[in-house]
Amino acid sequence: MFISTLMHHSANYSVNSSYRQCVPRVPLRNQPVHTPHCSTSEPSPSKNDTESLSNEFISRLSGKHEGGPGKLIPSLLPSRRDFISISAMSCLAASCSMIAVAAAPTSVLASTLEEVTPSVAMATLTPSEENVISIFERSTFGVVNIFDITIQGRASNPEAEVPEGNGTGFVLDDQGNVVTNYHVLQSVLKGLGSTNPNGRRVARVSLLRPDGVQQTFDGILVGADRARDLAVLRIRAPPDLLKPLPIATSSSPVSLRVGQQVFALGNPYGFDRTLTTGVISGLNREIRSQLGTIIPGGIQTDAAINPGNSGGPLLDSSGRVIGINTAIFTNTGTSVGIGFAIPMDVINRVVPQLIQNGRVSRASLNAQVTNEEVVKRLQVPPGACLQSLEPGGAAAMAGLMPTRRDLSGIVPGDVISAVNGKIVQSGSDLANILDQYQVGDEVLLRVVRSGEAGGPKELEVRLKLGEEK
Known about the structure:
This protein is α+β, with helices and mostly antiparallel strands. It is 23% helix and 30% strand. It has helices spanning 15-22, 47-62, 80-102, 106-116, 127-139, 186-191, 344-357, 372-378, 394-397, 427-434, and strands spanning 5-6, 9-10, 143-152, 160-171, 177-180, 201-208, 214-225, 230-234, 261-266, 274-288, 294-301, 313-315, 321-328, 339-343, 363-364, 367-369, 384-389, 404-406, 409-411, 415-419, 422-423, 442-449, 457-464, 466-467. A hairpin with a 2-residue loop joins strand 20 and strand 21 (422-423). It starts with a strand and ends with a strand. It comes from Chlamydomonas eustigma. This is PDZ domain-containing protein. Residues 30-54 are annotated as: Disordered.
């Protein structure tokens, strides 16, 4: 079954505590101090004695002594004191050598180093790496960290702000509009209940300044669309801090290709402005919103998306936003290489309405569509299979049938195969087509109905579109 995990990260997670868990502080142990053993009971040899002894000893070892090699005279074997003396002389000689090198002219050092050390070319970046770095450096100032807040009344402070969680967003324009996911703000929006939250302060938004310091601003809600998991905030930041990201005009399968490189920018687990890379793994995937409605045209990617990445941009190799990272398929709660982004086609339809009206008026059948996995099990023909109907909604009033159970088992709901002659192959197709109409528009549906005597039948149903709730 398709699992979509929404990427909202709790603020209770501490970055510092994670380091403490991963890299526990280990106290340094007291290291024993080792000092060389030196005898002070024997008198130090004179310079002449040392030179005489050393020369004679070396002469004996080299075979030039009259005793010949292999006939060491016991009296010429170095004593413990002699070893100390020889060691001292060696250290003195080494010290003198180091001093001499340090004091040597630069030209001598250079020529010596050239002879001894082979030249090593500095590592250079590939054109691909240069492009990735360029994308990050151009985009990072347009990506923001979002902390939604909840107002909790207390005796000492009746409007105390409590941070709930963090997500990501990006600067859309020079007016300070910031786009993110609805679910990044869901805690505070749910807390406001039926109150219209537009114009309310619902988050803290952090921007990166050119000097590398983050500056935080109040995030004022402009509008939110739960059905498409999108929201717009506005911040009152100086114009020089607003760095809008370039937006792709479309992210349809015509303009995108499976296999092309993409980049996800976000704040996973609070690690701000993290870049991950991957490719487009699939196109036209169905993403389910919290309302159960289908977000059509989803982009599947293997770029790592984790809690905190929600609302962040998915970029193409030109640095343009082609989607908003919103969900992952996982059994562990972390990235397994299957992430999903809302495509720009949806964003370009929804966000302008949110900015202009604070809400989205969307035409709808007022019905839930069965997901792809269930459709495969029911073995219904291609199209959008109706799972349930809203009482009094457009589909119910037109007499369409939902999925149901009778004595023979599960009976699939009506399958919509076309809208005004436009072919419907899936729930995503239906959602895309309905987005082109207005509330109250009349459409003609081609429907395949199961559970009738004599097998499935094709019907034509005319209805007026309702408003999506």
